[in-house]
Amino acid sequence: MCLGEAKCQSKSDLLETYIRSYSAIEEEAFTQRLKSIYKKFQITGKGYKLPQLHSYLAKKYVQYQNKDIFFSEIGLTHIYPNFPRDTFGEEIDRVIHSDDQEHKRVDILQTFAPNLNDYFEHLTQCVQNDVQVRILLAWPYSEAAKLREDVLRRYASDNISPEINICDCVIANLETLERVIRVAGNPKLLDIKLYDTLPSLAIYRAGNYMLAAPFLHGSLAVNTFQLELRLYPSNQLIARTLQEDFELMWQVARRFYPDPNRNWRNDLKILFTS
Amino acid sequence: MMIEQLNRFEVSLIEKFRAHPLFIQIDAIAWHDLLEILIQRRFLSLSIINIYEFVIDALAGQEIKRTVRGILNEEYPRNTKGIPLLSHRELLFQDLLNLGATPEMILATPEMPATRMIRDKSYKLMVSCLGEKYCQVGLVAFLRFWAEVLVSVEYSCLWQRISERLSDGQSSHKIRSEFYYFHMIHDRRNSDIGKESFLGGLTHAQELAIHLQGLIVSEDALLYCINFEENAYQLKCQFYDQFVSTCSNLCRALTQM
Fold this sequence. Notes:
The complex is a heterodimer. Chain A is an alpha+beta fold. Helices cover 45% and strands 15% of the residues of chain A. Chain A folds into two domains: 63 residues, no CATH class; 192 residues, Endonuclease, Chain A. Chain A is elongated and about 90 Å long. Chain A starts with 10 loop residues before the first helix and ends in a 5-residue tail after the last helix. By secondary structure, chain B is mainly α. Chain B has one domain: Heme Oxygenase, Chain A, CATH 1.20.910.10. Helices cover 68% and strands 2% of the residues of chain B. In chain B, strands 1-2 form a two-stranded parallel ribbon. The longest helix of chain B is centred in the first third of the chain and has 28 residues. Chain B is globular and about 50 Å long. The model of chain B has no long low-confidence stretch (mean pLDDT 95).
């Protein structure tokens, strides 16, 4: 506690600071205390130990400080053990009531979204309140979707049925979106696309709020840790990379609209084969 | 090498099929005669279910059974709540109505002897491979060619006329074809065997092609497969042959060639 950050004091300076800050102590007793500190931090190099201790602690302190700043710089604000259902709902509400047109967008990238039904009301309100909604899901007949299904059936441990059928899960999402379309009366602001590739992260975005989670072998993305990010931080390393990858996938994916007045399952089957 | 040989054979067989006199002169067929052809063709569509069920029971491998079962189940779609939707059979009926056939025409027109004979022969052909060394090859080859690859070729040839009244969904002033157009796309050969792409998904013909490739392990198996495809082609030709003499316009057009 008495060691200065800027430059290393001499042993007698340090002893003086100690006596001034805490209490009187014999020089021998102080030396013994220093020795046990050297031992604790494994300061075993040749020569004077005090400068070694100083440079060791200074280095550790800088590392600690940088890391702390680094997380906020890249926009990482929290890590959840699994998908924070209510928090994301609140973020969507914020976007719905926002006056800033820039913020009025909701994006979801998933293989299939097991929690899409939780946001049925939110999504309906979004498209009725000027919020652009983009949903990016796996094309259910893709080999990539089958591969993800095989991986989950074989390796997932978290309450996933060994009979999980990704094709049906995506179609269930499309049925939810069909209901949004019906209730909201053919909204122009709902855009749905399907992809035939393999993303590595699930992304849920509302305005400048984003949750990102990896597709692990052992569990669904919603049951995995979630990185909570604020977009547009000073260091764009993660936020921009994720946003750009979403846009790239959006470009290569194919538009699909589960029109309630159309036999859209027919269109779905041939989306990538025609 | 064997698969390349099979691919070359299939491409030439499809070419030959497309050159059937009825398809060559498809534009000369009177609309009423076209409907007659499609109504007879419906009997083959209805029999596909039996063909599929037969193959599932006769197949030995679990993986291939799963694929065939999956394709069959697509004929009877349900939503994810388990509620049955219109079956492909109903969509066929709907397309025929939209093309101008009446329910009476579709339901009461008797199956012609030639159509019935083709159905019987097709079934017998499948039965004939039971107990044979390359039975599995025969079953998959026949199913893929008779019920998928050639079906798509038939519908793409007939589409030239069907599209006069039904659309592929891009046109706002024509009713969309819910049966012919979609089967034309998702049944088709789409690529050479062994060249199926990981991206983009597979048609029914391609799903079966992957299994077929694994079953063709020798020259004899290849010849067995080629023989079954040739037979499937002959049966389909015979189906269309029956109309060449009965459609008056078609006869006239053919004699003027």
